[in-house]
Amino acid sequence: MRALQAAQHQASPAIGFENLETEVENHILPVSGALPAWLSGTLIRNGPALFEGGKPVRHWFDGQAMLHRFAVRDGAVSYGNRFLQTRAYRAAKSGRIGYSEFATDPCRSIFKRAMTLFDPGITDNALISVTRLGEKHLAMTEAPMSVEFDPKTLRTLGYGAKAPGLMATAHPHRDPATGALVNVATQMGPRNAYRFFVQEPDRAPRVLASKSVGEPGYVHSFAMSERYIALTEFPFVVNPISIPLKGKPFIENFRWEPERGTRIFVFDRHSGDRIGVFDAEAAFAFHHVGAWDEGGKLVMDFCDHGTPAVIDALYLDRLRSEPSSKRSLDPALLRRLVVDVDSGAVTSETLSDKGLELPRINEQRCYLRPYRYAYGISDTEDNAYDVANELVKLDSRTGEASSWSEPGTYPGEPVFVPTPNASHEDDGVALSIVLDAVNERSYLLVLDAGSWQELARAEAPHLIPHGIHGAFFADA
């Protein structure tokens, strides 16, 4: 019995929520299997890697950002990793929490708390995602600034332009015609507003559309089609004036009020003109999957958790503890909203009963267009932890899913890379960084996106903590 318990503990994903302080550069990895000859480029993945730099943080979203680089060339893979050299990181290394994080706040006097909303010491810990704007590569979080880095060395270079608000999503969309990033910022203070803005290379952000709001919702991502931009305001809301008075970390000021339902704010993507506000049933999501136009309708998909209970599940004390029996969370389900912008009608349906998170699609072929396949993380039926242990390819037309899993492993977001001159939507590979808790190691997994079978894996020189989002750069 003790041996069984020890084996179960060894396979716990909790090992992926411990500090990684080792940094390496251009480490050549052993590869098993065969990498596609055409696969050439660099996967850069973002995520937290320092949780106790002195004073511990409380939430997974508060660990200090580390970038991981897997460069694939001529059938070989090299690896490097590096912390973003931010003010928040330097404070953590000195043994203190210097800035307001997602769910961890520095100790402040009552006076400093009262000033927080108007002169906020917001973190620059850009741990969520990576993107590109012109020739600049950026790490992003929900703060109004991004951090520029060198994609070859991962060296921190400086900051991107400041967004027009107190918060901004870490999931900007890209205008396919200009390469500009389109994003939404939430301004909080005596007057609150959602501000859609356009960021062009080497230019100041330009506000495209704005909507005043009494109590802003928590906005992690939004939808964009050829014609529209749309913000889904889930009923997880905050009264910003109360934030400095309560002395709570940022996210703990939000309230779940499902009776409000979900509001969808739709604007013309090109002119910024307001199209309308549309009502839907209560839901909660971090991630949108795809959006497109069908005649006079806007179609948009997201991963619906139902409630924001997932945020509480990601506190580190819970993630590091052994479960009593089974995972506490229900799976996030792929939900589709169809907004008739003329009549105001909104229809909603769940596309599959298989869980899906950290969703990716073939963006080269399906961006702003209908898609069929979504790739993401999910859970096997016997998973006892609130950490995904399965990779899935979900068919949005049939609801069916193909799965990849191995006992004791916990894969991260699968990034789709299309085959050159691909003839169909799932012609390509999916790249995922997998944490093997049994052997206390991590590896880059390469799956054939069509068959969802393993092609190759490349073992990293150390265990890589659970990460969030990444991107593949063919020329980096």
Summarize the structure.
With 476 residues, this protein is mostly beta strands. The chain contains seven helices and 34 strands.
Structural summary, described in words:
It is a single chain. The radius of gyration is 21 Å and the shape is globular. The chain has 476 residues and is mainly β. Strand 6 and strand 7 form a beta hairpin. The protein contains seven helices and 34 strands. The strands form eight sheets. Strands 2, 29, 30, 31, 32 and 33 form a six-stranded antiparallel sheet that branches. A five-stranded antiparallel sheet has the order 1-5-4-3-34. Strands 10, 11, 12, 13 and 14 form a five-stranded antiparallel sheet that branches. 8% of the residues lie in helices and 39% in strands.
List its salient traits.
single chain, 476 residues, mainly beta, six-stranded antiparallel β-sheet, five-stranded antiparallel β-sheet, 7 helices, 34 strands, 8% helix
Residue fraction in strands: 35-45%
Distance between the termini: 50 Å
How many β-strands, per DSSP?
Answer: 34
The averaged pLDDT comes out at 92
Q: Major sheet: size, sense and barrel closure?
A: 6 strands, antiparallel
**What gyration radius follows from the Cα positions, in whole Å?**
21 Å
Please count the helical segments.
7
Tertiary shape: globular
Structural class: mainly beta
Helical fraction: under 10%
Outline the low-pLDDT stretches. 1-10, 108-119
